[in-house]
Write a structure and sequence with these properties.
Layout lengths: L4 E4 L6 E2 L4 E2 L3 H10 L3 E6 L7 H6 L15 E3 H4 L6 H11 L6 E5 L2 H9 L3 E4 L8 H14 L1
Parallel strand pairs: 1-4, 1-6, 4-5, 6-7
Antiparallel strand pairs: 2-3
Length: about 150
């Protein structure tokens, strides 16, 4: 796999906050990437949620934070940086301790995807909701790996 670290947005990318639910394919994708040994991270705006417990409290009950490498979990309320500011993406690359091009960022938000690309990360905008394409993202990652 060409990516050393894959970072995900949470709200409206992997999960829905209200009501608390996984978006189709999100949980399965994380489990598959984890089984491949990919370092997983989070870059998520958590304004108004002042503790890790509060953040986890708005996620589905079966959300497993342990799938993510602790240093690669960047909640805006904890790190004092917010998306789409480039500083949070630069921090993600720094804590991953790899070249930016070895990091992938996944989000439904086009501005965030563009900012991640601006700092040198690979990034993909995913369609979420009832037409979620996490399954096709897993195939696109495999296709990309076979091309390099």
């Amino acid at each position: 796999m060409p990516f050393q670290s894959i970072f995900f947005d949470l709200g409206d990318t992997l999960v829905r906050v209200n009501p608390k639910a996984w978006l189709p394919g999100g949980k399965e994708l994380l489990n598959a990437l984890n089984q491949k040994g990919i370092r997983l991270g989070i870059i998520s705006n958590t304004t108004g949620l002042v503790s890790r417990q509060a953040i986890l409290g708005v996620l589905p009950a079966d959300f497993d934070i342990s799938l993510f490498e602790p240093d690669l979990v960047l909640f805006s309320s904890e790190v004092g940086l917010h998306k789409p500011n480039k500083d949070i993406f630069e921090k993600a690359v720094a804590v991953a301790n790899v070249h930016a091009s070895q990091c992938l960022y996944c989000s439904e938000n086009v501005v965030e995807v563009l900012m991640a690309q601006h700092v040198g990360m690979r990034a993909v905008r995913v369609q979420t909701g009832p037409n979620s394409d996490w399954g096709s993202l897993q195939q696109r990652l495999a296709d990309f790996e076979s091309l390099i």
